[in-house]
Amino acid sequence: MAAASCGSGSPAATVDGLGDLPAEVHVLNAWTPPTTGDNASLYFQAHNAGAQTDRLVGASCDCAFGAEVHEMAGGAMQPVAGVDVPPDTQVTFGPGGYHVLLIGLDGPLKAGDFITVTFGFELAGEVTVDAEVRAGAPDDPGMASGMPGMG
Ligand SMILES: [Cu+2]
Fold first, then answer.
1. How far apart are CA 134 and CA 41, in angstroms?
2. Structural domain contains residue 9
3. How far is the CA of 96 from the centre of ligand 1 (A)?
4. CB 3.0-4.6 Å disulfide test: which of 2, 48, 90, 151 passes with 8?
5. Is pLDDT of 44 > 80?
6. Residue 114 belongs to a domain
7. How far is the CA of 95 from the centre of ligand 1 (A)?
8. The domain spanning residue 33 has which CATH number?
């Protein structure tokens, strides 16, 4: 799988009105905990290799009815319009912070499965990666108690 390797993304798009400056964002290390529920939080890093601040504005997955960009604020999650990714910067979308919520899953997500997720960036356009369904990740508060790694 190439999902965790920088430089494996889609070809760079051109920024309108900015000449040939490339807009290039890589999504790295995308994963989600296993679930039998309707929704799942998706975590990843977004690396902006371009010269302009880009912005994550949406996502989609064939595995789910919809997806929203969320943040955790005061212990509750809420939708946000977008998340800026400055140039030459890697922004972490992780447990307790920004994440993408997959809404209305078609079926259970089992450890070891991969789901294909397409992210929408304002400048870079669509970036598609395979996200791993990963049990017992050490930084996942939902898995921290009770269930040591299943794999
Ligand atoms: Cu959320």
1. 12
2. no
3. 9
4. 2
5. yes
6. yes
7. 10
8. 2.60.40.1890
Evaluate whether 25 touches 9 at the Cβ level (below 8 Å).
yes
Query: Domains in the chain: how many in total?
Result: 1
Band the pLDDT of 149: cuts 50, 70, 90: very low
Distance (Å) from CA 6 to ligand 1 centroid:
26
CA of 67 to the centre of ligand 1 (A): 9
Kindly compute the dihedral angle of the four CA atoms of residues 90, 44, 151, 142, in this order, to the nearest 10 degrees: 110
Q: Residue 129 and residue 117: Cα distance in Å, rounded?
A: 6
Q: Is the dihedral of CA 104, 1, 25, 72 positive or negative?
A: positive
Average pLDDT of the residues in 98-105: 97
User: What confidence category does residue 17 fall into, taking pLDDT thresholds of 50, 70 and 90?
Assistant: low
Alpha helices (H) along 26-127: none
Is the pLDDT at 121 greater than 80, yes or no? yes
Is 1 part of any domain? no
